[in-house]
Design goal:
Helix content is about 20%, strand content about 15%. The chain is built from 3 helices and 5 strands. A 3-stranded antiparallel sheet has the order 2-3-4, with no helix packed on it. Strands 1-5 form a two-stranded parallel sheet. The longest helix has 11 residues. The chain is globular. The protein starts with 5 loop residues before the first strand and ends with a strand.
């Protein structure tokens, strides 16, 4: 009997979301209060909202760092910015892992 592998715990970590996720369509008067990515020089880029740091932003600079935390995405050499949010790349990863269906609740 063939088993279908279903991933029922998929989610996208904040660090992978597009940097303009909340600011692209927001009125200018509200943009300073929306979650946004701040560049902190050598420290890197971070998601910030209302002065609070939420998470690191895992863009190109983050993946280029030699001393960054290694992730499951690095398996097989596919660690790269925006991979989980690029549909074609997500489907490639699912095929590699034998996952036929993916959902989030």
């Amino acid at each position: 009997m063939a088993y279908t592998i279903i991933s029922a715990d998929d989610h996208i970590d904040l660090g992978y979301l597009p940097r303009d996720m909340w600011t692209e369509r927001l009125p200018k008067s509200l943009q300073d209060r929306a979650p946004h990515v701040e560049d902190r020089g050598e420290k890197g880029e971070y998601w910030v909202c209302d002065g609070e740091t939420w998470s690191d932003y895992r863009g190109e600079r983050w993946f280029a760092r030699a001393n960054r935390t290694r992730l499951a995405l690095d398996r097989g050499g596919v660690g790269e910015a925006h991979r989980p949010t690029t549909p074609e790349k997500r489907l490639t990863d699912m095929d590699r892992d034998g996952v036929e269906v993916s959902l989030s609740l």
